[in-house]
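Hypothesis: this fold can be encoded by more than one sequence.
Test: take the structure tokens below, design a sequence, compare later.
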């Protein structure tokens, strides 16, 4: 009777062996934790569709930012919800807006956290779109000018990273130029280079209060059917000065993450978005899945596809699990 000479199962026999030969290792040091900051004081309101995630005023936000630091997570990604919205989203570049206030609070508290500011207008406009509107059309170039102002305000407040998520053409070049002209040439630009028009953003829109009042975002966010177009978008953003490029969402677009990783040499990020988070939370709450096992499997898949950086609402849980907390 013939037996196999190669036995891959030898390397799966015990957890110690499996750990020793593991090819992909998720670590807290590769995670960014998204946070939602609102104007006001003593506000900490859980987002209904995202259990464990909160809208927080700057004073309460700082408490959780300290937790993030203690977990060994290197950085946070900030989204702001202003008290007042207008057609141009002017609170996005106000020095007293929620994101600049939160950035300064982190710096004043001397927290050892990288701070990234998401650069978009949808949370700040009264129509919920990511740019300037004319007859229900999002205008590209006027929007880019305002996005550059917002990015500059975040960098001036002390952000390490500005992260344009709007998908307007040419916004990376405009932001890079604005930063460099202001002497902020060391500020990193992490572009949402391949951001798809996805049905998985629903919980985020509740969290950021950014649902469009009319239409949708198909005219500027990418068609989910396209992968070659993503390569073009990434190449353009790198040419314009992006230091890090992001694919969003993560799980349905693992093939895109892989292609970006193989074709470009810059760091690649992926956003494990709100809908992905909420589906896991709902299934776990119903006892249908083992939350820890599934989350670690999902993040391992995202990293295995090629993302060095993962933006995820699971970051604190994952860091705790990896520490054995």
């Amino acid at each position: 009777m013939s037996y196999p000479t190669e036995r891959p199962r030898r390397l799966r026999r015990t957890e110690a062996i499996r750990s020793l030969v593991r090819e992909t290792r998720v670590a807290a040091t590769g995670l960014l934790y998204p946070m939602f900051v609102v104007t006001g004081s003593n506000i900490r309101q859980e987002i209904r569709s995202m259990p464990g995630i909160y809208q927080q005023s700057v004073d309460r936000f700082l408490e959780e930012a300290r937790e993030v630091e203690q977990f060994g997570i290197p950085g946070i990604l900030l989204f702001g919800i202003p008290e007042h919205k207008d057609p141009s989203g002017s609170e996005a570049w106000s020095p007293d807006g929620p994101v600049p206030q939160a950035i300064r609070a982190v710096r004043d508290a001397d927290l050892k956290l990288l701070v990234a500011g998401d650069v978009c207008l949808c949370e700040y406009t009264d129509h919920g779109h990511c740019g300037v509107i004319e007859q229900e059309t999002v205008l590209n170039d006027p929007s880019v000018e305002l996005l550059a102002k917002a990015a500059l305000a975040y960098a001036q407040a002390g952000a390490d990273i500005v992260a344009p998520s709007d998908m307007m053409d040419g916004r990376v070049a405009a932001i890079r130029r604005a930063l460099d002209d202001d002497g902020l040439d060391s500020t990193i630009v992490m572009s949402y280079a391949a951001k798809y028009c996805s049905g998985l953003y629903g919980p985020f829109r509740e969290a950021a209060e950014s649902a469009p009042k009319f239409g949708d975002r198909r005219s500027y966010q990418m068609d989910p059917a396209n992968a070659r177009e993503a390569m073009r978008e990434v190449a353009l953003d790198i040419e314009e000065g992006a230091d890090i490029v992001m694919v969003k969402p993560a799980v349905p677009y693992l093939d895109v993450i892989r292609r970006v990783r193989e074709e470009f040499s810059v760091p690649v990020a992926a956003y494990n978005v709100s809908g992905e988070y909420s589906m896991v939370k709902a299934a776990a709450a119903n006892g249908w899945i083992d939350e820890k096992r599934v989350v670690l499997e999902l993040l391992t898949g995202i990293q295995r596809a090629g993302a060095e950086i993962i933006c995820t609402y699971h970051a604190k849980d994952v860091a705790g699990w990896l520490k054995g907390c």
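The chain has one domain: 25-323. The longest strand covers residues 31-38.
Hypothesis status: open.
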